[in-house]
Amino acid sequence: MNNRAGWVAPAETEPAARRLIDFLGGHVGKHGRLAHSRWFNPVQVIVSVAMLFLAGGFLSKAHCTRGSINPDTGAIDLNWSGNRAYVSACYNDIVPLFAGRGLDTGVFPYAYSWQEGDLTRYLEYPVVTGYFQGFMGWLARISYPPVEAISKHLVPVPMAGWYFVLTVLVLAILWVATVRMACALAGRRIWDIILVAASPLVLVHAFTNWDILAIFFAVAGLLAFSRGRTVWAGIAIGLGTAAKLWPVFLLGAFIVLALRLRRFRSFIIVAVSTAVTWLVVNLPVLLAYPEAWNEFNRLNSTRSWEWTTIYAVAARLTLFDGFDPEGAEVPQILNSVSLVLFMASCLAIAIVGFVGKRQPRVAELVFLIIAAFLLFNKVWSPQYSLWLVIPAVLALPRWRLLWAWMAVDMFVWPVLMWHMHGSDNNGLPAEFLDLVVLTRTGLIVVLVVCVVRQMLGRSEDTVYQAHNGYDPLAGPLQVSPEKAAEHVQMREGRVSKTMWHANEKENA
């Protein structure tokens, strides 16, 4: 049963949803009316769930915002005594980097530096994230005095803790906006976005870092493109790329469709506006602080593998000790292997996109590209898994499989924290971490295989079925120009009621 707005009832396609609905009272009868309330429709329900999980995400990190009053100075200092960040798994980068990157000093983020041995270090984040960090640092500094005065008589809150609270507030607003945009992208399968709103990964990683910023811009870019606003799509993707590199991978999905259709105008507009936007926001820092601007690239080229990558697991489980000579300052071979594997994956994704009988959906291509990047990259910080949530839900809305992956992925974090506690402090043995990481990797590979099978027509595509054979995200890159124009008009609410109701009758 579809409701008046054309939304697919989840009980009709998802066994997991069907069981929950049976528990809550059963399916809607033939005379039932869905989503007719102005204040309680699917969008409001999903946004409400998103806010509930954001609150859980804040509480999971709140223990790391506590402070104690310094008896000598009377100031409130950050208190992470007793390995609190690892014992309670509340660690996040936001709190320690407030002072660690000079955000408490009032200095422009990229003008601040410090020494690590003979090396001069700078802020290691792309510029949009750096601008955001600097602005939130300024806001925390000017608003902290009354907070400090009040909290001394209640629960001591250090300035770093207040900075975290303000940052969380803004990131939460951006996440709610992101979920709302995802509802628009889901089209008639809007209820699939409940998996985004109620993702277990939000509980542990919404506020581990600043990743929501890039996710917001990436989803905004997808929404703009789906509505045919290619310049705005490029601006959003450019800002996202300047916040975190991965949103530029969206262009990979668009170029596959453009090559398949031999229609390049919309792709060129998006690509050019992405490049111009990225250059405009980067140029001031690049010219004024070139070494600081390059810190992101320098650090990513010189660092070794991260704890939860396939390379780290291989090193812990076997005699493998890396591709590069011991003591190498730059892991050049590891960098090359990681890059080659990712590029080979992108080539394979493009081939699958070309040979399939039907046009691949944008979400399918985006999911595969980001998944390949995470699987083969030498750095997979646990919060990076947030990047995959919305593309995965839009590409393959199989609720049980997605829940299984996200639940396992969530447990990577506490297991990693427990392992990092160290064997001297009863930390968890590496074998447990390896088991969880390999399980996560296996589930993502299963998702990849399912998406590829779907693209090749080996399994049904419920998204295409729900949308009369068009891709809700393709915008101007639909199968035919006529279908693209019709789709853009529909997204903007300009399709006649006659056409809309005719489509509904065909789907009834």
Automatic annotation (TrEMBL):
Its main location: membrane. Keywords: Cell membrane, Membrane, Transferase, Transmembrane, Transmembrane helix. It is found in: Cell membrane. InterPro entries: GT87, UCP010361. Coiled coil: none annotated. The chain crosses the membrane at residues 39-59, 122-140, 160-181, 193-225, 231-259, 266-289, 333-355, 362-381, 432-456. The keyword Cell membrane applies. It is a multi-pass membrane protein. Belongs to the glycosyltransferase 87 family. This is Glycosyltransferase 87 family protein. It comes from Corynebacterium pseudodiphtheriticum. The lineage of its organism: Bacteria, Bacillati, Actinomycetota, Actinomycetes, Mycobacteriales.
